[in-house]
Amino acid sequence: MTIIIVMGLCCFFYILGAWQKSGTGRGDSIALRVNQETDCTILPNLHFETHHSISGANPLIMTSKVIEPCHIRYSDYTPCQDQNRAMAFPRENMTYRERHCPAENEKLHCLIPAPKGYVTPFPWPKSRDYVPYANAPYKSLTVEKAVQNWIQFEGDVFKFPGGGTMFPNGASAYIDELASVIPLADGTIRTALDTGCGVASFGAYLMDRNILTMSFAPRDSHEAQVQFALERGVPAVIGVLGTIKLPYPSKSFDMAHCSRCLIPWESNGGMYMMEVDRVLRPGGYWILSGPPINWNKYHQTWKKSKQNAEGDQHRIENIAEMLCWDKIYEKEDIAIWQKKANSHLCHQMNGHASKMCKVQDADDVWYKKMESCITPPGEAAQLKKFPERLSAIPPRILDGHAPGITEEDYEEDNKLWKKHVNTYKRVNKLLGSSRYRNIMDMNAGLGSFAAALDSPKSWVMNVVPTVSERNTLGIIYERGLIGTYHDWCEAFSTYPRTYDLIHGYHVFSLYQNKCNVEDILLEMDRILRPEGAVILRDSVDVLNKVRNTVSGMRWKSKLLDHEDGPHVPEKILISVKEYWVASEEENNS
Fold this sequence. Notes:
Layout: H1 2-21, H2 26-37, H3 83-86, H4 126-129, E1 130-132, H5 140-144, E2 152-154, E3 157-159, H6 171-179, E4 191-195, H7 201-206, E5 212-217, H8 225-231, E6 236-238, E7 253-259, H9 271-279, E8 280-289, H10 295-298, H11 306-322, E9 325-331, E10 334-339, H12 344-349, H13 388-391, H14 395-398, H15 407-427, E11 438-441, H16 448-453, E12 459-465, H17 473-478, E13 482-486, E14 499-505, H18 507-510, H19 517-527, E15 528-539, H20 540-550, E16 555-560, E17 570-577, H21 584-588
Parallel strand pairs: 4-5, 4-7, 5-6, 7-8, 11-12, 11-14, 12-13, 14-15
Antiparallel strand pairs: 1-3, 2-3, 8-10, 9-10, 15-17, 16-17
């Protein structure tokens, strides 16, 4: 009897399955619909190559709000460095050039258009020397800096000869002179900070020596200088030394540089030099070329008396001595100081205890006021030379200065992200090529995504959100990578269309109940180039909400399963931004 019952049940379920498989059953229609909406195997509708149109309709038909384009006048809109808003703030200490983000009711809820004629930037290294005029149509620098070899206009492109105010013969020759004093060739110097960078030729030519430079300059009368830098494929952000601390952790940079950056280093009790000291690694170098160096020759050109010009340099020398920096070079227009590798004894002998900052965490800097005090030096980290530094265990982890992160955690994180990046490369075979030069990681963690992706054809801006439980940006810099702090409830300090690819790991889960998903996606769209790609990794529920929003933003998307199979709740959303530019019809409407 048991055998007969079992055989009967088997036959019943066989017939039921055959009926559903035939397509006439309701169960199969539901399954078919689910499969159509969550197909996670191929990406027939996504095109990663650069061209001006993406043919074919998106098979994922979803009901969503269509977000309209903004007016063409917003094509270069930088929400937190808006020129009109800046004028309402005081000019003292460059306050008006700092970040001043729009209130909630002032935010734009539209898509920033590319200017008419926008084209894909040239691949690196050609992009270092040429930028299409249509992408950044500003000629003022070609006139203002004509004799300094910054930039030239030729036909329909800008040409960058590699010159600068203090290196009219080219950045390469200038860097050769620095290399006679600073070890630029052996991997000792990997991360650099360029204050008041212009069009970032210094950082562009340091890449030949495998050095990553974080360049920054304000959005000011030198129109679009940071935009030019990023169009060239060089890391840069809009920023200024004003009243707020720089968005970088302490002891981050191996070298800092100012080439006629016009920062009043001697003012405010040496506050700006003290901020450079905070972010400069023990044993690091500070280069100052231009005023007030070589004052005896140039004081009349600077419209200063001999006494004033000499006094400025004398005050800088005194501040450097107070910071325990040793002057190791001065010739003509260039002076170089080196921060002592261990300045404890120096500060004790000189009685600097009263000048030390009282802050407990020197990396807690987001919107924190700059102070005229010396950051306690701490112990000098023993860093390996690059590229060994990229995979070696960072000193902050080894010394127990990264709470909750062990050596084992670090090794596991590296392995995990190698697997993840291999998956991305299977989906998008152009990843790691010059197709994606400027890459942003919105929630960088330990920097393992950038480390796994490491390629001379691209660089990664590693962002550590200010709302993260763990502050890992110092670890990222110890690996020889660069990045910044940022709160994604606000706009990033960059121009529109400056990144080729954006990666986000659990960004939207991190910002749940903190700010609007649509606002974050609109900011991503603003900084993403036409035909740029987005890779998001998050829970399936979160990504379905994101996918619903981006379907109304001229993005094409596909949801993929986790590498370990469909039962893992974490999924991957791959998106490509369509190519489109401002049209007369949209502007008139």
